[in-house]
Amino acid sequence: MSAIDVNGSLQSQGSNSTSQGSNVAEENGESQRLDHPSVIVEDVVVDLQDESSVRRLILNFKKIAAKNQELRIKYPDDPIQFLDCDIELIMAIRDLQCLSDVPQFYALLVRLNAVSVLCQLLLHPKCSIGSRVADLLFKMIEIETEPQYLTILIDALMDAQAPKCLLANLKRLNENNREDAISVYSTISVLVSIIEKTTNAADVAVQCGYVQW
């Protein structure tokens, strides 16, 4: 994969404010969470209605992705050196699933070049990481929302050659494995959705080498 440029840094928050934020979230109940959704990432509450907070979430993912790549390049024959970072990366990808609840921030994901990073990770040496990305894309695309939000995401996926990357990862999956089977479904569903929603389905066919599913 090509080098990943991380544009930005994470802002730390104290553990006391984190604890208070968690308690408030619990006390307010389900209806309050729906009105003002938030998630907890690395013991920090991420307000999904606040752009700067979502930005930190995305930049945290990019930071971990860049770190993972650097460690794998530095220690190609010593997996123990990047084992923990692989786990961090899987968790960071999982944390991005909350963006499906706020598709209005898909444009921010695109502006921060995170879609390109996600597509690169579909080709990650660790197949399970590519599968997590496929599952994430499935969750983000298979939602009922304003068409313009999905259009922004789909266009960015096409620019990053997502169909080609998805197909490459699909070929590594074993349908006899339960987790792989889930990712096979996610991958094919994403490809079908891209074909249905893109303005130029022929580009998808070109990227996939005119493969038939």
Automatic annotation (TrEMBL):
<dbReference type="GO" id="GO:0005681">
    <property type="term" value="C:spliceosomal complex"/>
</dbReference>
<dbReference type="InterPro" id="IPR016024">
    <property type="entry name" value="ARM-type_fold"/>
</dbReference>
<keyword id="KW-0175">Coiled coil</keyword>
<dbReference type="InterPro" id="IPR011989">
    <property type="entry name" value="ARM-like"/>
</dbReference>
<dbReference type="Pfam" id="PF08216">
    <property type="entry name" value="CTNNBL"/>
</dbReference>
<dbReference type="InterPro" id="IPR013180">
    <property type="entry name" value="CTNNBL1_N"/>
</dbReference>
<feature type="region of interest" description="Disordered">
    <location>
        <begin position="1"/>
        <end position="33"/>
    </location>
</feature>
<keyword id="KW-0539">Nucleus</keyword>
<feature type="domain" description="Beta-catenin-like protein 1 N-terminal">
    <location>
        <begin position="25"/>
        <end position="134"/>
    </location>
</feature>
<keyword id="KW-0677">Repeat</keyword>
<dbReference type="InterPro" id="IPR039678">
    <property type="entry name" value="CTNNBL1"/>
</dbReference>
<protein>
    <recommendedName>
        <fullName>Beta-catenin-like protein 1 N-terminal domain-containing protein</fullName>
    </recommendedName>
</protein>
<keyword id="KW-0597">Phosphoprotein</keyword>
<feature type="compositionally biased region" description="Low complexity">
    <location>
        <begin position="7"/>
        <end position="23"/>
    </location>
</feature>
